[in-house]
């Protein structure tokens, strides 16, 4: 919307100029507006009619997204013999809604009504803005905005506006922390460490290397290899892999090593490099006892062995987790990458904390199969139902201190993802913060963003809050198709926020 003195096509002067054609430069806005228009017309029509050129982008977006066929009518081309000014197929029984960008006098919609009369069942028109100039139209017109809405916003004239225009929406928060991150080893370290610490200050580094990290000595050696690539001055916080050969003296010495943060439980064969994981939890009671005494956090991959893949988490939570909590009430536990509403409820009602990944907050199991199988959306725990995703979003955006971000960033080379036995894991570190910011913003919960993404986890692990800050600017950012050998989450998508 431009503010100033404008001469309209009709000759009238106007304070506002609604430049809806320019929407094509802001794909995320076009989408948002298309979705809002769709809410008004959902179920009421089987055919959309766009008017070139103003309404074509928005009409095409609604048409392809919600699978409603469309036609196009050029209002100013009259019917000459065989030249038809209706493009596309239609039937007299089709309930049709005309989509337009702005309605002023109603003239162009009325011309389209004339063309369509008798050819389709015309049920109405939907527009983005009604200029409130007293249009005349023989069909019902629904508008998303009215000129008076903009008056209420008290938009200033262009000169003053120039200053405001430079003021884009920004969110400033303490630099995020990632409480669950796979950095891998060897050649991969360079890429993974760079993307990790560009956006995160502290990162809990998972120990599922081959062979697994089971001694403090191995963990410190691994940390040294990470530090060689650590150009952003991040803080890798090291973990051990819960293993029968873990040394009790390492547990007793744990708190003397600031670099160590906890011990990770992998059930056997449930995920990447878990063949040395736990088959029988009771065999580890002596270790849990010492961990409880030494106040060493236990991070749990909470999935049951040999159960339907979609039920593994719920079964673990019902059968195994209560036993650990009951036997070791003071043991500090993080249930990692929770993916179900059962997990959310369990955490709310028990002495347990939880990490949540970006993928479980924005996708459900249908996203593995949308338009064909998508191996880049395969991770463990596997994505669950929409209801599960909703429950996760609700607690994440609530700011509840029990829940914090653990990206479960888990890069696998493109070749090992696109194989006949593709690996589980999503490379999300370049996009995780932006995705979560957009999610919180869309729910009007940006005030809780810093808690989820930065401070809640510090409270649990007893870390100081980061003094470094980042700014998320509302500035569309297109996710690259790959970073070296790794394909990131949301490839090619336009995200709302950029980190500056
Ligand atoms: C992780 C990996 O690849 O290391 N994969 C995954 O799908 N999350 C392992 C894990 O955390 O389960
Ligand atoms: Zn993981």
Which SSEs are present, and which pair or pack?
Elements: E1 2-7, E2 13-17, H1 27-41, E3 47-50, H2 56-66, E4 70-73, E5 86-87, E6 95-103, H3 107-116, E7 121-130, E8 141-146, H4 147-152, H5 158-166, E9 170-174, E10 178-181, H6 188-199, E11 202-205, H7 216-227, E12 235-241, H8 248-253, E13 260-265, H9 285-294, E14 298-300, H10 312-319, H11 321-327, E15 333-335, H12 341-349, E16 353-356, H13 358-362, H14 386-398, E17 403-405, H15 414-417, H16 432-442, H17 449-461, E18 469-478, E19 494-499
Parallel strand pairs: 3-4, 3-6, 6-7, 7-8, 10-11, 11-12, 12-13, 13-14, 14-15, 15-16, 16-17
Antiparallel strand pairs: 1-2, 4-5, 9-18, 18-19
Helix pairs in contact: 1-2
Bound molecules: N-carbamoyl-L-aspartate and zinc ion (ZN).
What report would you give on this structure?
With 500 residues, the chain is α/β, with parallel strands linked by helices. The chain contains 17 helices and 19 strands. It has helices spanning 27-41, 56-66, 107-116, 147-152, 158-166, 188-199, 216-227, 248-253, 285-294, 312-319, 321-327, 341-349, 358-362, 386-398, 414-417, 432-442, 449-461; strands at residues 2-7, 13-17, 47-50, 70-73, 86-87, 95-103, 121-130, 141-146, 170-174, 178-181, 202-205, 235-241, 260-265, 298-300, 333-335, 353-356, 403-405, 469-478, 494-499. An 8-stranded parallel β-sheet has the order 10-11-12-13-14-15-16-17. Strands 5-4-3-6-7-8 form a 6-stranded mixed β-sheet. The chain has a 3-stranded antiparallel β-sheet with strand order 9-18-19.
Write a concise synopsis of the structure shown.
The chain is of the alpha/beta class and 500 residues long. It has helices at residues 27-41, 56-66, 107-116, 147-152, 158-166, 188-199, 216-227, 248-253, 285-294, 312-319, 321-327, 341-349, 358-362, 386-398, 414-417, 432-442, 449-461, and strands at 2-7, 13-17, 47-50, 70-73, 86-87, 95-103, 121-130, 141-146, 170-174, 178-181, 202-205, 235-241, 260-265, 298-300, 333-335, 353-356, 403-405, 469-478, 494-499. It starts with a strand and ends with a strand.
């Amino acid at each position: 919307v431009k503010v100033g003195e404008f001469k309209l096509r009709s000759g009238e002067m106007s304070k506002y100029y609604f430049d809806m054609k320019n929407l094509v430069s802001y794909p995320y806005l076009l989408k948002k507006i298309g979705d809002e228009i769709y809410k008004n017309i959902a179920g009421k029509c089987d055919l959309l009619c766009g008017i070139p050129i103003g309404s074509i982008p928005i009409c095409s977006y609604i048409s392809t997204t919600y699978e409603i066929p469309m036609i196009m009518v050029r209002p100013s081309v009259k019917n000459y013999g065989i030249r038809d000014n209706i493009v596309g197929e239609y039937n007299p029984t089709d309930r049709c809604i005309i989509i337009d960008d702005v309605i002023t006098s109603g003239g162009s919609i009325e011309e389209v009504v004339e063309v369509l009369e008798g050819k389709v069942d015309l049920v109405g028109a939907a527009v983005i803005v009604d200029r409130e100039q007293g249009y005349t139209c023989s069909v019902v017109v629904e508008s998303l905005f009215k000129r008076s809405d903009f008056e209420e916003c008290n938009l200033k004239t262009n000169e003053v506006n120039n200053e405001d225009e430079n003021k884009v929406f920004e969110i400033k928060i303490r630099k995020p922390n990632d409480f669950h991150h796979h950095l891998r080893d060897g050649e991969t370290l360079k890429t993974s460490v760079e993307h990790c610490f560009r956006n995160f200050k502290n990162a809990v580094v998972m120990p599922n290397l081959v062979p697994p990290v089971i001694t403090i000595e191995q963990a410190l050696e691994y940390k040294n290899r990470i530090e060689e690539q650590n150009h952003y001055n991040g803080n890798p916080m090291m973990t051990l892999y819960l293993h029968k050969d873990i040394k009790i003296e390492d547990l007793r010495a744990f708190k003397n090593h600031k670099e160590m943060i906890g011990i990770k439980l992998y059930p056997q064969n449930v995920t990447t490099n878990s063949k040395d994981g736990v088959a029988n939890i009771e065999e580890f009671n002596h270790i849990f006892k010492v961990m409880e005494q030494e106040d060493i956090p236990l991070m749990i991959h909470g999935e049951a062995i040999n159960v339907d893949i979609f039920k593994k988490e719920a079964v673990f939570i019902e059968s195994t987790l209560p036993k650990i909590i009951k036997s070791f009430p003071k043991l500090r536990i993080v249930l990692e990458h929770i993916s179900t509403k059962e997990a959310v409820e369990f955490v709310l009602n028990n002495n347990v904390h939880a990490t949540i990944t970006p993928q479980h907050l924005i996708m459900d199991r249908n996203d593995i199969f949308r338009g064909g199988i998508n191996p880049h959306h395969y991770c463990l725990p596997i994505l669950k139902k929409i209801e599960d995703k909703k429950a996760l979003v609700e607690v994440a955006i609530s700011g509840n201190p029990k829940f914090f971000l653990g990206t479960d960033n888990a890069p696998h080379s493109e070749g090992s993802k696109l194989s006949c036995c593709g690996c589980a894991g999503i490379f999300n570190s370049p996009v995780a913060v932006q995705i979560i910011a957009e999610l919180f913003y869309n729910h009007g919960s940006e005030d809780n963003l810093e808690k989820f993404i930065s401070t809640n986890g510090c409270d649990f692990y007893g870390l100081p809050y980061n003094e470094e800050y980042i700014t998320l600017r509302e500035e569309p950012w297109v996710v690259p198709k790959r970073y070296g050998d790794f394909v990131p989450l949301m490839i090619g998508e336009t995200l709302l926020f950029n980190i500056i």
